[in-house]
Amino acid sequence: MKLISKSFILILILSGCSKDNGTEDSSLGKMEYQNQKYELDQGYNVWFSELDCGNYDVFAYGLYLTQGIEVYKYDFDDGGKALVTEGEGNICCFNLFCKSADLLTGTYTFVDDVQCSEYVLGEDVFTVGPNDKLASWKRAMNNPTHCAFDVDLTIDWDNYFQGNDPTDEDLAKYNDYQQKLFRVKSGELTIEKNGVNYEININCTTEEGQAITGTYMGPLTEIEFGI
Fold this sequence. Notes:
By secondary structure, the chain is mainly beta. It is built from 2 helices and 15 strands. It has helices at about 155-160, 170-180, and strands at about 30-35, 35-40, 40-50, 60-75, 80-100, 105-110, 115, 120, 125, 135, 145-155, 180-195, 195-205, 210-220, 220-225.
């Protein structure tokens, strides 16, 4: 697998939602933060496979809820890959963990970190049980658990992946995204499924102690991105 070490590549999964402007509501959901509402129109379930730390059967997932942003796997000629987010709008990304090869429905509770067969909450360490459903704000499979609203990630990834330096314009977009990004630290996220559609309810708190809530009702595009 090709490894991309530049800090610029951290942008790969992040992007957006636009503010509620009073127009006809055609969205599949909304996030609410600091008395502003941001629409959602796409959802993605990224399967990162089992954590590579022995036979503990703890599986990692990336739940991406976006508006105007596409999440996809970029394949390199040499067999490497990268997970990309591209477009203009908003994104929320949640790193989820459970002992199932399929994303479980139910309530995911935030913890600090997930380390193979154990998870950390404050100063306490617990064993991951068969029915545990966890969201981590520190453990990031590709991107941290976070949201970023009104960001522009219309970046020339082909140019960058071919080994060229990013343009000044693309760097400015990335820096703006970094300034708008905030971490989601605690709370709960509930996932239910009815046929091909999901109902997701978010009731969380940011690293700065501010409330962030949201709902999404619609399909999740499945992306297999084994690590």
